[in-house]
TrEMBL record:
Domain ABC3 transporter permease C-terminal: 292-412
Subcellular location: Cell membrane
Keyword Cell inner membrane on entry: no
Domain (MacB-like periplasmic core): residue spans on this chain: 21-249
Residues spanning the membrane: 21-41, 289-313, 342-364, 384-404
Superkingdom to which the source organism belongs: Bacteria
Primary location recorded for the protein, binned into one broad class: membrane
Membrane topology designation: Multi-pass membrane protein
Protein name: Putative ABC transport system permease protein
Keywords for this protein: Cell membrane, Membrane, Transmembrane, Transmembrane helix
């Protein structure tokens, strides 16, 4: 416990040469400022990149058929095959821990020929034949009406849910959409809902709105797909990763389609969970780099404080000698020096945190007035844990900065100190 006299002495010692104290404190201030800014910038970049996933279920895999690369059981290499609706049920029965299995067929594509007509308006859009579960895997906001349901699937209803960009391309402003009809490759579908996505898997928000969803069964019937499945979206339960389960899925498909067990090219796939983990690993590394750089800059400031404290001890040799002669213990002398070092470090560090917070606030304030839907930088911030970590670093730094000067102070002999001028 330090008395008021101790604190008065600390303030007097630090303010005796205030310009030197300010310059010394600036090293710590700048170090902690850089640390917090780097961590906030890393978080902003992470938020922006994750926004590009558009809220997709990241524990998912997308899978499609390719040509075989090995002959097997009398069947040639280079054979083409297609997934079937029966594959979906087989995967559900034979592979545990899967949450959703959504077969999908597709028409059109970005930059393709016009395939959707309404009156005199035409457009080229991606048209998906899907099951209702797809909205759990590719979340979207239904802005009007509803999404497709299992009754639509069972009754093969020719209904469609369109994106906001499809709506603006085919309809006039204020025109009624729900209950109207659009013609997809010559087949009429009634519009039952509209949607909007926050982002696309490739980060292209505008293209994410240029899609049309229809029931899988109606799609297959209308466009003569029979039992064919173009590709599948598979999501695992939260307690199991799709990466650990995908080989079981491949084994089921290879067995059903007479594919060599070691043919790794026959089934194409994109493991979103694996890619998402790589991105998370990248941001963990960036956070590590931020701490490394910030602490190195902070270390230079700590060295400056340590040097100044050595000078202060040298300047106060007489004072320390008098205190020792009056009975001050080595621990009292050491505690006084350490307290001065910690106080200077914490005060300068808190000023650095305050400056960094002000900069982060200004950046967020500027971003709030901008359209950040397609930006790779969003909401830079640091959480309370980072602030507490910074404070812990400051306390430890203050102790380290004052340790050597404190040891030098207690080595001063009272008689020698009183002889100095």
């Amino acid at each position: 416990m330090f008395s008021r006299d101790n604190w008065d002495e600390i303030l007097e010692a630090l303010s005796a040469n205030w310009f030197r104290t300010v310059l010394t404190a600036f090293g710590v201030l700048w170090g902690i400022f850089i640390l917090v800014i780097l961590l906030a910038a890393g978080k902003g970049l992470e938020n922006g990149v994750k926004q590009g996933f558009g809220g997709m279920a990241t524990n998912s895999m997308f899978m499609w058929s390719q040509t075989t690369s090995k002959p097997y059981k009398g069947l040639p290499q280079g054979r083409r095959f297609s997934f079937k609706t029966g594959d979906v049920e087989a995967i559900k029965e034979q592979v545990p821990h899967l949450r959703f299995i959504s077969p999908r067929n597709q028409l059109g594509g970005f930059g393709g020929a016009n395939n959707v007509v309404r009156g005199l308006n035409t457009g080229a859009y991606n048209v998906y034949g899907d099951y209702p579960e797809i909205i759990q895997q590719e979340p979207m906001d239904i802005t009007s009406g509803r999404f497709i349901n299992h009754s639509d699937i069972k009754e093969k209803r020719k209904v469609a849910v369109i994106g906001e960009s499809v709506r603006s391309g085919l309809y006039e402003p204020g025109e009624k959409v729900l209950g109207s009809y659009i013609k997809i490759s010559g087949v009429n579908f009634m519009v039952i809902g509209t949607y909007k996505k926050k982002g696309g898997g490739n980060g292209n928000v505008e293209e994410a709105q240029k899609q049309i969803y229809v029931p899988f069964t109606a799609f297959s019937q209308a466009f003569n797909r029979g039992e064919d499945v173009g590709w599948m979206a598979i999501t695992a339960n939260d307690d199991h990763s799709i990466t650990s389960l995908k080989n079981q899925v491949f084994d089921v498909l290879k067995d059903r389609h007479t594919i060599h067990p070691e043919d790794d090219r026959a089934v194409g796939h994109f493991d979103l969970y694996e890619e998402f983990n790589k991105i998370n690993g990248l941001f963990v590394a960036l956070k590590g780099v931020a701490y490394f750089v910030g602490i190195l800059v902070l270390l230079s400031g700590i060295i400056g404080i340590s040097n100044i404290m050595l000078i202060v001890v040298k300047e106060r040799t007489n004072e320390i000698g008098v205190r020792r002669a009056l009975g001050a213990t080595p621990w009292a002398i050491r505690g006084q020096i350490l307290m001065e070092s910690i106080f200077l470090t914490i005060m300068s560090g808190m000023a650095g945190i305050a400056m960094a917070t002000a900069v982060i606030f200004l950046v967020n304030n500027a971003l709030s007035g901008m359209d950040t839907s397609e930006m790779m930088f969003l909401n830079p911030s640091v959480d309370l844990g980072v602030v507490m970590t910074a404070l812990a670093i400051l306390v430890i730094s203050g102790l380290l900065a004052g340790l050597i000067p404190a040891q030098n102070a207690i080595r001063i002999k009272p008689v020698d100190a009183l002889r100095t001028e």
